[in-house]
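Subgroup meeting minutes
Present: P.N., E.W., G.H.
Scribe: E.W.

1. P.N. recapped why we're keeping a running log of single-chain structure predictions: easier to compare across weeks, and new members can see raw inputs and outputs side by side.
2. G.H. added today's entry (249 aa).
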Amino acid sequence: MSGHSKWATTKYRKGAQDSARAKVFAKIIRQVEVAAREGGSDMTANASLRTMYAKARDASVPIDTIERAIKRGSGELEGVRYESISYEGYAPDGVAVIVECLSDNRNRTGAEIRNVFNKNGGTMAEPGAVSWQFERKGVIAVPRSFDEERVLEVAMEAGAEDLADEGERWVVTSSPTDLMAVRGALEEAGLEPGTSELSMVPTTTVEVASESEAKKVLRLIESLDDHDDVQNVYANFDIPDAVMAAYEG
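Output recorded in log:
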């Protein structure tokens, strides 16, 4: 299990217990708006919007809230115009970090993200410095209650690339273009996914075995993730299960 996957699992658990759901909703709604603005409001022709719509529904965002976001993105309703921006950097121990943001003020967001890195022992890097260590993938979480062999069979027939055991759930990976096809096949087979999204999956990892260093890395990742403009944070750390469990506790 890669460090990135462990962090995704941590966020998955945290999200299920998080009382500040309005903040989670706001981030997802921005993604829906941008997808509608960039590809139009017709979900049959806009794969990115279909993915963001599914992500919003997985997070229990009300349908009328999603539909208003689509209308704002397509120009049917007035709204703020957000810009997609990615930042790259390093956490303590040389862990590679990618931060994806949606912002209405590039200069402000850039300065604030740099400040978060600096305050938490990290450093910003030039574009391209760490992104080569990641691949864009479709990632689908399926409840552990479903049979592994059945999930694997259905997912692979639909074009999935791999299935991983992540404790409380099975995680299916695919190419970005096959994400919705794989999700659809799982749904048709009665294997209802918990979540599905496009993600940056690390191709190499950095081992962080010390509990003190792990806390520093995760503190930076959480601080970045907590920023209002940040949509996703990806990192290539590999933290032992025992250390991650202590942190979660």
